[in-house]
Design a protein that fits this description.
Largest sheet of chain B: none
Strand content of chain B: under 5%
Helix content of chain B: over 70%
Number of strands of chain B: 0
Distance between the termini of chain A: 68 Å
Number of helices of chain B: 21
Oligomer: heterodimer
Shape of chain B: globular
Largest interface: A-B, 24 and 40 residues
Structural class of chain B: mainly alpha
């Protein structure tokens, strides 16, 4: 019970870490646009 | 006529007669309620929970009222929202909508601290089994290491509903969990200082630079919910409700529901949950050797959680060539957001130019996910073993 519980938790959190990395690659943050305000 | 008057007076004195004759445990628990009132009002210790719990404890220990018997108001509240695990889950919707996963998504490696911060759950489970607790009791006691009151109540009540643990134990577990969560600022700093050197505590970590897109923030609760459903379906109610609250918040399209999730829903659920939990603290059932052991083991679980997080921090410090401050590991225990604030305060104490808050928040939200995942996995393992 202990081994499977601990191993299962570590495995699940490892999967979540991979999922987060995949998500941030699939949905990257939009590039930062410089404002043109004040130049026009 | 005179007889009727005396009999009437006899009825008025029945309660005090009961307290004098056989009410010792009740009197002790009324004193315990008094201590909880003092902690909540004078010391500000988790007043939102301790105040209603203490009042429920006071009510149930005043004799002959029948509040916790079928039809009694506390029993009705218990059956309505705790017997079926509804109230803890409603509170979880609120926790989800108040949690910001952005720092974690910007730095997902810190989720490892959330795993190390659950060490106490598993070591306490081992110790509780060694002390002779049944498997269900041991899992319920170890869940205090989740540093998350609703998780403890959910897990313990699930077992109480199956008559696998005594109902009075639910009250002991809840009070122990919330008391130790409130005492995290007292429990953690000595351990953090004991396990780290001054040089390690002074490590300055640069501000995290990673940005996270809105689409990733929206997708995150959905994929974690799906993953939990696949790996640990027994814990899906817990994770699902947290992620529902968070999903509503990051979607940005249901501000009224988010407002209700952050305020009205958890407030009402907290009041009823506290009262009903207090109702399980009737003296004769509560004052047992097991209750004392629950409090002892609960403290041990939180200490070991902190040890696990800080030790991983030290390993990371060595592996990174001194770039990671091991104090951040202490935030992996959940107890969101108190543990993160504590890491920031402690880091700032040793280096006035150090701002660890965003790193600590990432580890802390990782701990939130880690603690719920650990509970979910344990429930699914018990199901797999045919115990649930």
């Amino acid at each position: 019970m202990l081994v499977v519980g601990l191993g299962g938790t570590l495995f699940a959190l490892f999967l979540i870490t991979l999922l987060i990395q995949a998500l941030t690659k699939i949905f990257p943050p939009p590039p930062h646009h410089r404002t043109t305000k004040g130049k026009e | 006529m005179i007889d009727a008057v005396f009999q009437g007076f006899g009825g008025l004195l029945e309660g005090s007669r009961f307290l004098l004759d056989q009410g010792g445990p009740n009197v002790v628990m009324i004193a315990v309620a008094g201590v909880m009132f003092w902690l909540a009002i004078a010391r500000g210790v988790e007043p939102l929970l301790l105040l209603p719990i203490a009042f429920g404890c006071l009510l149930v220990n005043l004799p002959l009222s029948g509040l916790m018997e079928p039809g009694g108001v506390l029993k009705t509240l218990y059956d309505f929202g705790i017997g079926n695990e509804l109230f803890p889950l409603l509170i979880f919707v609120g926790i989800g909508s108040m949690t910001d996963f952005t720092p974690l998504l910007a730095n997902p490696r810190l989720l490892l601290f959330g795993a190390a911060g659950q060490l106490g759950i598993f070591l306490t489970l081992l110790i509780a089994l060694g002390l002779g607790f049944s498997k269900e009791e041991a899992v319920a006691v170890a869940s205090i290491g989740a540093c998350d009151g609703p998780t403890v109540i959910y897990v313990s009540n699930l077992f109480a509903g199956m008559d696998r643990i005594p109902t009075a134990m639910v009250g002991a577990l809840a009070v122990a969990a919330y008391s130790y969560m409130a005492l995290v600022p007292v429990i953690q700093p000595p351990i953090m200082r004991l396990l780290t050197t001054k040089k390690e505590r002074e490590v300055k970590m640069p501000s995290p630079k990673g940005k996270v897109s809105r689409a990733a923030l929206i997708a995150f609760p959905l994929v974690v919910t799906a993953l939990t459903g696949i790996i640990a379906p027994q814990g899906l109610p817990l994770m699902g409700m947290i992620m529902l609250g968070n999903f509503m918040k990051v979607s940005g399209v249901v501000p009224r529901l988010v407002q209700a999730s952050e305020n009205e829903i958890p407030n009402i659920a907290t009041l009823f949950l506290g009262l009903a939990i207090g109702g399980t603290m009737a003296g004769p059932q509560f004052l047992t050797r097991e209750t004392l052991l629950v409090f002892g083991l609960g403290l041990m679980a939180i200490v070991l959680d902190t040890v696990g997080g800080v030790l991983l921090g030290k390993v990371w410090y060595w592996l990174s060539g001194g770039k990671v401050n091991p104090l951040v590991g202490a935030a992996g225990i959940s107890a969101y957001p108190m543990a993160a604030r504590l890491v920031q305060t402690e880091g700032h104490r040793w280096n006035k130019h150090n701002y660890l808050l965003m790193h600590a928040m990432a580890a802390n939200t990782g701990g939130q996910i880690g603690s719920v995942m650990a509970a979910a996995i344990m429930l699914s393992v018990l199901k797999g073993l045919g115990i649930l």
